[in-house]
Automatic annotation (TrEMBL):
Compositionally biased residues, Low complexity: 451-465
UniProt entry keywords in alphabetical sequence: Chromatin regulator, Nucleus, Transcription, Transcription regulation
Record's keyword annotation contains Nucleus: yes
Identification of the protein by name: SWR1-complex protein 4
InterPro entries: DAMP1_SANT-like, Swc4/Dmap1
Top-rank taxon: Eukaryota
Localisation: Nucleus
Region (Disordered): 1-34, 270-318, 423-472
Annotated family: Belongs to the SWC4 family.
GO molecular function, one term: transcription corepressor activity
Record-annotated DAMP1 SANT/Myb-like domain positions: 103-181
PANTHER family listed in its UniProt record: DNA METHYLTRANSFERASE 1-ASSOCIATED PROTEIN 1, DNA METHYLTRANSFERASE 1-ASSOCIATED PROTEIN 1 FAMILY MEMBER
Any single Gene Ontology cellular-component annotation: Swr1 complex
Amino acid sequence: MASASDVRDILSLPHPSSGPSQPKKLVPGTSRKPEGISRELYSLIGDKAPTLVPQFTRPKFKQKPVFGKGKVKWEWKSFSNPARADSLRLSHWESDNVKDASYRFAQYNVEPPVYTYTAEEYTRYLEDPDWSKEETDYLFSLAREYDLRFLVMADRYDYPGKIRSIEDIKWRYYTTCRRLIRNRPWAGDDTSKNQLLAAYNFDKDHEELRKTYLIGLYDRTPEQIAEEEALYVEIKRLEQVERRFSKERDDLLRTLGGIESGLMGLRVDPDAATGLPLDPKRKKKKGDGSEMESPLSAILPLAGPSQPKRKESVKQPSNDALHCMIRLDPSSIVPSTNKSSHTPVYLRSTRLPAPKANIATKVAGVLAELKISSTRLVMPTQANLERLEALQTAAVGLVDIKRAVDRVEQDIRMMKARLRGSEPLDGQSMDETGVPGVLMIPEDTSRKRSVSVSSTGTAATTRTSTNKRRKR
């Protein structure tokens, strides 16, 4: 059966593609799904979320190594270890790419430096009554042979007639090295020398004591271990009980004493702390009664019916005197304006009033002349502190009076110097005080007149009259 294209060819009809081209309509949802996203998820989000595509792409892992490309030829080679003193030769497999014939593990054979000494140095610095020169030489030969492994040295130590512990071997070796370092010439600075000496320091007694403790700890029996654990648990329990008792005691003191207990963490009414009258609005909120709630109000319902307040004992003054107690007048205590502040316990000797800074040195000097310390008393009782405070007050007054007297004397000296600065004229006389007085002018015998210095004022005029009478 002929198809549509064959019919068009027979009838000489043009094909649809030969006509004018029309834009193809894009079918929605025909975009390709990116890799790494499932079909269901992509059908939900579509192609409008390009930022999510990199999150679902497959991670690029490290490329797998490719084996079998390069062949390595191995050869059986003999070698000698330069770390050995003998001429022993061994063999091992090695690739033909290695050109260096030296044994590569010889670099790890690091030998610690072992000091050597001469016979003269031993005679001058290293002699010890418990160690002979032959035994010291034997010790240093073991140190070189076993690379300062003291455990091996103590195990191999076999000197005739001597039994040495590892602490004895260490002490002798390190002491010998320190003496050699200290007495030989040193090319570097003192800091590097001291560091090297500290590296060779060894405390034999401390090491023996440490090992004794470790042996005692290791040799404990199971009963002793159980007893120590029980004691440790008991100590922890006692510490917890003590902390709990201390907390309960502080709470009780806060409840009973309030702000006068001197403890921290008290909730104080600001009106009660400052001594101000209560606000009427706050009174209404608290209740009809005008009395304030006290710290005891929280425990009064638990204590049962209220009991009448006991009167103060008549023996209270005698009791206070017996126990050296001094009670202050509550009205003399200045209330604090801070809500959370209170007056803790303090020493009376720390609250002495200090003089002003400008006269403190002079007051201290006055007290030092009396051989009294202004900062410390041997017996700072109340009576002694009151006397010291009175003495300080008197010393301050004395210093103030002395300053006032010095100021007046200085003014007098300045006035006298000012008066002496004006030179007297011819015929001018000086009175008994050294002040220029009267200038006498010769006139008729029947009449004489005196001229006084204008700066002297009325006093000078009075002295002029007196001099006139004397002249007559």
